[in-house]
Amino acid sequence: MSPTATVVGAGVAGLATAIGLERLGWEVTVLERASAPREDGAGLTLWPNAMRALDAIGAAAAVRSIGMPASRATIRSARGREITQLPIAELTARYGPMIAVHRAELTRTLSEHLSEPIRYGSTMAVASGKLLVDGRAVSGTLIVGADGIDSSVREVVTGVVHPRQTGQFAARGVARTGSMTPAVTTEYWGRGLRFGLVPLRDELIYWFAATRTRAAAEHPLETFAGWHHPVVDALEARQVGSTPVLALQDLPALNAWHDGRSTALVGDAAHAMTPNLGQGAAQALEDVAALLDELGSAPVPEALAAYELHRRSRAEYVVSRSRLAGRVAQAGNPLTASLRDALARATPARALLRQFATILEPSP
Ligand SMILES: Cc1cc2nc3c(=O)[nH]c(=O)nc-3n(C[C@H](O)[C@H](O)[C@H](O)COP(=O)(O)OP(=O)(O)OC[C@H]3O[C@@H](n4cnc5c(N)ncnc54)[C@H](O)[C@@H]3O)c2cc1C
Questions:
Q1: Which of 12, 321, 359, when mutated, tests ligand 1's pocket best, judged by the most ligand atoms within 8 Å of its CB?
Q2: What is d(CA 88, CA 38) in angstroms, rounded to the nearest whole number?
Q3: Atom 30 of ligand 1: nearest residue by CA position
């Protein structure tokens, strides 16, 4: 008989886990709180380490087929002056392509790899230290908490852990810019404000705006009025899907990622990070690849321990790097912002490559 697993959450981490477990011969149930797949207007950049993990899970080709490889990436001032370029060609040559996808399309594509339908409208709850769905205890050889930053499953592994606020907010959307769609991934740095443009397929652009107040994120056209024209073009274009606003948060280091028996955390449930390095989904996928690898060669309790040992320090390192990057990039004080720009201009490509290597090199 096949071993059984319950995966909680149908985001990137949960879907990738379920795909990989099915390939290992497990019988998998995916529970998702939302009543239907989410269609938010949002994109995602999958860095080479994300693509490498997807390859191990067996879903890279499908994701490549819906993605847009990045060929150039620049950082500019609010008025459009180039501050620096990222060495995308060198990164691609060393580590493989960086692919931008529409989030809803990514989750739809991953879902299509599953043999059993996702159980939408199923919320995992915790009562007296037990995991319950619809009032019934969850059973199975393995329970994977892929339920995001506000994870319920985490409570039975570590007790209650609250996310940390950063004092920053983000709005994001996908716009149909047609023939005006810029071909270059661009991040604009202002004072206390940032704006990103990421080309997707089909003449769509994914944009994100990082601000220091919720009100500024809720009114991006006013907040970014007068910025370089591709920013204003993206905001004025027809928006595809909703444009959600959220507080940027991350998680402090947890005291454990598994309960020693049958329950483990992956993705944001274990190590939610700020989006400044574009690494949240990549680290989630690295978790999944490592967990599957361990489950393929050891009984569940040993596999969970080996998984945590393999992944934890690397993910925690990226959480702290990402938090620091956000503080620097979001500098509000004019002097600090000028220093930030000068430092970015003066950093040679080889130093940038060394910084990227700490995240993109495969872990031993
Ligand atoms: C503005 C922004 C931009 C980002 N950009 C990038 C990027 O470019 N590249 C990148 O790699 N990362 C990026 N990230 C990070 C990335 O989005 C996350 O790290 C990634 O989506 C985490 O996936 P996950 O599956 O762990 O969690 P989630 O995507 O949060 O999925 C969790 C799922 O669990 C469900 N759920 C929650 N609670 C329950 C429950 N009790 N019962 C059942 N289901 C439940 C939720 O409904 C949800 O579907 C960005 C994040 C933000 C905020």
A1: 12
A2: 31
A3: 148
| Sequence ranges of the domains in the chain | 4-164+249-360
Q: Is 10 in the pocket of ligand 1 (CB under 6 A)?
A: yes
pTM over 0.90: yes
Q: Are 219 and 193 in contact (CB under 8 A)?
A: no
Q: Pick 4-164+249-360's CATH classification: 3.50.50.60, 3.40.50.1100, 3.20.20.300, 3.40.50.300.
A: 3.50.50.60
Sign of CA dihedral 22, 24, 26, 28: negative
| Ligand 1 centroid distance, CA of 153 (Å) | 15
Residue 176: Cβ within 10 Å count: 15
d(CA 355, CA 83): 18
Tell me the pLDDT band of 363, cut-offs 50, 70 and 90. confident
